[in-house]
Amino acid sequence: VIMALRLTVLWIKNLIKLINSLEEKYRKPAELRFIKEYAYDEIAQELNLELNTVKTRLKRAKEILKRENNL
After folding, report:
1. DSSP readout, the chain?
2. Which phi and psi angles does 64 have, rounded to 5°?
């Protein structure tokens, strides 16, 4: 159990580092979604963006993270 927790903590730290490497327009929605677990509509409200803009930015953030980090 302790080993699993350590791996989870390391995974989360790595995810935060990767998200922080994104440019701002992708970083903030990704942080709110993947770290703070906001719903899409909550992100749209928090960042004063249209819902479709949030969806697009999150999709692009995932694509960038996958491409640049071999995820």
Report:
1. -HHHHHHHHHHHHHHHHHHHTS-HHHHHHHIIIIIS---HHHHHHHHT--HHHHHHHHHHHHHHHHHHHT-
2. -65, -45
Identify the CA nearest to 21 among candidates 71, 64, 50, 70.
64
Of 5-14, 20-29, 34-43, 60-69, where does mean pLDDT reach its minimum?
5-14
What pLDDT sits at residue 71?
58
Cα separation, 56 vs 59, whole angstroms? 5
Phi, psi (5° rounding) for residue 22?
Answer: -75, 155
What percentage of the chain exceeds 90 in pLDDT? 70
| pTM across the whole model | 0.82
Instruction: Look up residue 37 and give its two tokens.
Output: 């677990």
